[in-house]
Amino acid sequence: MYLMISTYLAPLDQVDQAREAHLAFVGELESAGVLVSAGRQNPPAGGVILLNVDTEAEARELMAPDPYLQQGLAEYAATGWTPTRGVLADWKN
């Protein structure tokens, strides 16, 4: 799995103008079966998307069409992650 942790690069009002398109994009990831979970950070300085993929390259390829990236509103840091405790510990691909 990969955590895609975003940091907003623009003021929140600008980010929110693209939020509907971003959420539609996230919905497409969910429909494709690669989204495990997603949400905005609190306070809203970015967000987190958890993808069920094996490599950083796959994660970055999936995220490339994100309107936030396309419009220069956010950047993503990719962190590989294997859950070992809690509700995701037995997650199966």
UniProtKB/TrEMBL annotation:
Pfam families assigned: YCII
InterPro entries named among the record's database cross-references: Dimeric_a/b-barrel, YCII
Start and end residues of each YCII-related domain: 1-81
UniProt family annotation: Belongs to the YciI family.
Protein name: YCII-related domain-containing protein
